[in-house]
DNA sequence: ACCTCCTTGGAGAGCGCTCTCCAAAGAGTC
DNA sequence: GACTCTTTGGAGAGCGCTCTCCAAGGAGGT
């Protein structure tokens, strides 16, 4: 094995030109005489030459890859069960492939793996980082910033930081949910929030509460969930015990909404006739749920693609200042509310 | 910008030793006097030195990354909607992280992107490839093999090839499903197969039919689906029209099973009392489905991890012959059958 | 005390590529 | 026809690292 493969040198020798000329033909830098180009291309064809990536990036200081860092709290690879990360990946890949950039997937869920990520970027193994982090306390943004690594976040950082990010107006999303529930005439509504150490969870809840309060509902019972169907199930159970008369529920993501619907149905309650349920995200489970979920749409793929775009752009022009792009949520009305 | 960062040379100068010595300390090759080691480590600390990845891999001819190639037929990033790929990713990442190897995610769904994958590997951008391919006609395995790229497949290749792979005994899975349906006393069973250009689909169906035939049911009506909930929905609809008396259904994955259950319920049929439904995979939707699906478990994460393990092993010993690891499916009984 | 063997540090040759200089040659200009 | 200006190919210096060789010094044997 030890594939050595033909080098620039080999091609140059066969074509009877210098290394520099071959390099120019390969990279399309500067003018090269068309005849010579032809000769060189033949030589390349003949040898089956492919430029060596390591050698190239040693001098260009570019790798053509970026790190896609997923910093879940949970035990590592469980995160992929959540459709959210699949959607992020899809959006990122979708954009990057148009630019010939490749994503390296990294999980950052422990001190150790976080250090690995920083190390990886400092080594120049990737040109920049896309950081999908939920928890407000995540330390990676500042560490990457300190290491001078071009970084773009999905979701604003826990503390103000001169870093680019894309985000959703989660509060507006919460308001949308509240408006729908009130529009349906619900009078006793509860909420199942996401983990409260996640900014998005806080924001969704804040927006929801605000809108309710503004309309004469100063108090909304809230149970904290964990963004999983099981946690939504449990939360709905508690809500039902404490407030049996509930007729409207806002769950901070679709998975939890699904869990809530299940409990409701198990208790012989009809959705949406007896209890209306609004989810959040508009991911696959929202459609699969019976009844299909009315939900607040988060355009995850588009946001992820934008995140990738912002990074690639800042890679091309490193002097650029950080930007932020905030997306607007949208209410998708289906059957559950 | 243009972070230059300290080099080996810098560290060597500060520590008052040669480059070679610093390299030895960093890589732990050969003995180095403990005192000297201490000095060198201090210098490293002081300068914040990190080895340059490109330079290193230029000489070692190793990158510490592998390509995780997902070759769906569908329009690219849609694949991530299918929980299957999320599970594969989880399994791969889970194993690789223990070995300090990083996966680069690539989609191969067009001629162009397939060529990109080959190019990427030939450039030495990654040390090997993990290829998750469903379609039997996929050309990548042979192209990668021809290029001398260490490769491991998820699912056996369409044509016999000297390449390592992991796979499931899909036929045994089909038999398991048939056995369950017959055990429940079903007399009129139908099947919703996966796309028939996918080997796994063929095998699941073959196993299922065989087991049915062996038990006195020579004919099983089959409708081909596309592994999506919508296609399962459509397929069940047709099955119901053509065979209204059906009392058992085998769907070749959980997504389609879910679609089938929905149709059944819409038609006022009870699952499993009127019609028993068996799915395949045991992915998240199987649990989320109402009723929860009885299904044939494919240990995707474990298989993906094994695939990664086989690749890493063959990277360490390139002279090794190809291996194959076949996993056994398992029936998971829930409520739908 | 001499010789051999083992340990350990340094020198330096690349790995394959890009890119800055230079030089040569051709095209204009007056 | 002598001059400058532009175009285009070649030479060669690195990019930062690993690793083979070599030499120096100390330990052990006789």
TrEMBL record, chains A, B:
Residue ranges annotated for the HTH lacI-type domain, each copy included: 6-60
Signal sequence, start to end: none
Single GO MF descriptor: transcription cis-regulatory region binding
Alphabetized SMART domains for the sequence: HTH_LACI (SM00354)
HTH cro/C1-type domain residues: 7-33
Pfam families reported for this sequence: LacI, Peripla_BP_3
Keyword field: DNA-binding, Transcription, Transcription regulation
Domain of life according to the entry: Bacteria
InterPro entries: Cro/C1-type_HTH, HTH_LacI, LacI/GalR-like_sensor, Lambda_DNA-bd_dom_sf, Peripla_BP_I
Protein name, per record: Transcriptional regulator, LacI family
Species per Swiss-Prot/TrEMBL record: Lentzea albida
């Amino acid at each position: 094995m030890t594939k050595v493969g033909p080098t620039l040198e080999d091609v140059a020798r066969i074509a009877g030109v210098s290394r520099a000329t071959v390099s120019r033909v390969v990279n399309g830098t500067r003018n090269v005489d068309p005849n010579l180009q032809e000769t060189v291309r033949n030589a390349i064809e003949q040898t089956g030459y492919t430029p060596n990536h390591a050698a190239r990036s040693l001098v260009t200081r570019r790798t053509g890859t970026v790190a896609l860092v997923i910093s879940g709290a949970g035990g590592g690879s469980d995160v992929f069960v959540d459709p959210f990360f699949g959607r992020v990946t899809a959006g990122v890949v979708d954009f990057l492939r148009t630019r010939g950039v490749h994503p390296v997937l990294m999980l950052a869920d422990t001190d150790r793996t976080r250090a690995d990520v920083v190390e990886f970027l400092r080594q120049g193994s990737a040109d920049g980082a896309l950081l999908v982090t939920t928890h407000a306390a995540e330390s990676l943004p500042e560490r990457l910033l300190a290491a001078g690594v071009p970084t773009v976040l999905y979701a604003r950082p826990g503390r103000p930081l001169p870093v680019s990010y894309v985000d959703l107006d989660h509060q507006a999303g919460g308001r949308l949910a509240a408006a729908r529930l009130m529009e349906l005439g619900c009078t006793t509504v509860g909420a199942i929030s996401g983990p409260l150490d996640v900014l998005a969870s806080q924001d969704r809840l804040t927006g929801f509460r605000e809108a309710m309060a503004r309309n004469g509902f100063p108090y909304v019972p809230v149970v904290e969930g964990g963004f999983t169907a099981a946690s939504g199930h449990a939360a709905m159970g508690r809500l039902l015990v404490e407030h049996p008369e509930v007729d409207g529920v806002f769950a901070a993501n679709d998975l939890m909404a699904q869990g809530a619907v299940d409990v409701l149905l198990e208790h012989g309650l009809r959705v949406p006739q007896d209890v209306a349920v609004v989810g959040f995200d508009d991911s696959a489970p929202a459609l699969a749920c019976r009844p299909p979920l009315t939900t607040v749409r988060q355009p995850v793929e588009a946001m992820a693609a934008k995140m990738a775009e912002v990074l690639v752009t800042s890679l091309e022009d490193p002097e650029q200042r950080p930007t932020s792009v905030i997306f607007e949520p949208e209410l998708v009305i289906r059957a559950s509310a």
